[in-house]
Design brief:
The chain contains 7 helices and 14 strands. The protein is an alpha/beta fold. The protein folds into 2 domains: 33-132, Immunoglobulin-like (Sandwich); 136-335, Zn-dependent exopeptidases (Aminopeptidase, 3-Layer(aba) Sandwich), CATH 3.40.630.40. The strands form 3 sheets. A 6-stranded mixed beta sheet has the order 10-9-11-14-12-13, with helices on both faces. Strand 1 (33-41) and strand 2 (44-51) form a beta hairpin. Helix 2 (159-176) packs across helix 7 and helix 5 packs across helix 7 (316-335). It is elongated. The relative contact order is 0.11. The structure holds zinc ion (ZN). Residues 143-144, 150, 159, 213 line the site of zinc ion.
């Protein structure tokens, strides 16, 4: 009888100890972070996260245009690490958050858009290398404005309104991409003389000029978009007289002309099917606006005298598609080193 009590007591004691141990085990959370650092070697940044040696992990690294997100799965329950301040102000902020008992999320946001060049991890560390994307400056010129209404659509609307809304939407799209600084020659319904426009373009120190216009034609069936660049120097000299005298000026003219035509050709590759493109869409014209000493194009985004084009130009969806094509063309143009 006495022996039976001892055995029951012994079992109860073992059960209590077992429960106690398992409780202690599940409540044990480990420190995982050893250190975190951001270093710079030449033009490359390295974000390094070093973990404690007694812990193993598997990361899933997701790169974002201006940051990273890492899911860290550990082999033990872990604490949320305290994040010390990083000395470099390139990091906007970073933190760890709990995903589950044994997994964490790490987020870091950068001040600028970056290009990731390296994502490495070893048993105890993650190393992520990236370069800052240089932002390109684009000047967008909304054609006409104020007393200069431009052409008129079949519904009586003015070109100046369509060019302005298209330019504003293009500006927003380019800025949102994080890859561009954008300057507008006008952001409201105002009249600008050609000289004022040229001065604004010159002051912008931009790497590309995109002038937005709409077309009109006495033939109501005529429709489609086209893009203009300057003609050869011979033709421009016939129009404006001998404006380029030195060899370096002539070289500069052709350098910009080559780049402008390259942009025009790239743009045509990105124009979606919904936009009708004219026959021979890449054209030349002695437009003084394009003599701005930077790569420059004038895009006639559609024909307001045509019913279909006029309706499309008034559609935000259509303008979005068109503006996206312009942005992809700019991305491509700058990626190919045409700055
Ligand atoms: Zn116009």
């Amino acid at each position: 009888m006495y022996g039976k009590k001892v055995i029951i007591l012994l079992f109860a004691l073992i059960a209590l100890l077992f429960c106690g141990f398992s409780y202690a085990d599940s409540s044990q959370q480990y420190d995982v972070l050893q250190k975190i650092s951001l270093t710079k070697e030449k033009d490359t940044f390295y974000l390094c996260i070093d973990f404690q040696k007694n812990i193993n992990f598997t990361p899933r690294i997701h790169t974002l245009p201006n940051g990273i997100k890492v899911l860290l799965s550990f082999d033990k329950p872990v604490k949320i690490p305290k994040t010390p301040r990083l000395s470099h102000n390139f990091i906007k902020g970073y933190f760890f958050d709990r995903f589950s008992d044994s997994s964490l999320m790490f987020f870091a946001a950068f001040q600028e858009n970056v290009n990731f060049i390296e994502k490495k991890y070893t048993r105890h560390a993650i190393k992520i290398g990236f370069k800052i994307n240089h932002k390109h400056t684009v000047v967008i010129d909304a054609g006409h404005g104020g007393k200069d209404e431009g052409t008129h659509g079949i519904t009586g609307d003015s070109e100046k309104n369509l060019t302005l809304i298209t330019a504003l939407e293009l500006r927003n799209l380019l800025i949102k991409s994080g890859k561009y600084h954008v300057i507008l020659t006008r952001d409201k319904d105002e009249f600008l003389s050609l000289e004022e426009r040229l001065q604004k373009i010159k002051n912008s120190k931009a790497e590309l000029l995109i002038s937005i216009h709409t077309d009109s034609n006495s033939d109501k069936n005529h429709r489609g978009m086209s893009v203009y660049t300057l003609p050869s120097l011979k033709k421009i000299t016939q129009t404006y007289g001998k404006t380029y005298s030195s060899k370096s000026e002539i070289e500069q003219y052709y350098k910009h002309l080559f780049k402008s035509r390259k942009f025009a050709a790239i743009l045509m590759q990105f124009i979606p099917e919904v936009c009708k493109i004219k026959k021979q869409p890449c054209r030349n014209s002695e437009l003084r606006l394009l003599k701005s000493n930077i790569p420059a194009v004038l895009i006639e985004v559609g024909c307001m005298s045509n019913k279909v084009d006029n309706e499309l130009l008034h559609s935000k969806l259509y303008r979005d598609k068109l503006n996206r094509a312009i942005m992809f063309a700019a991305d491509n143009f700058f990626k190919k080193g045409c700055k």
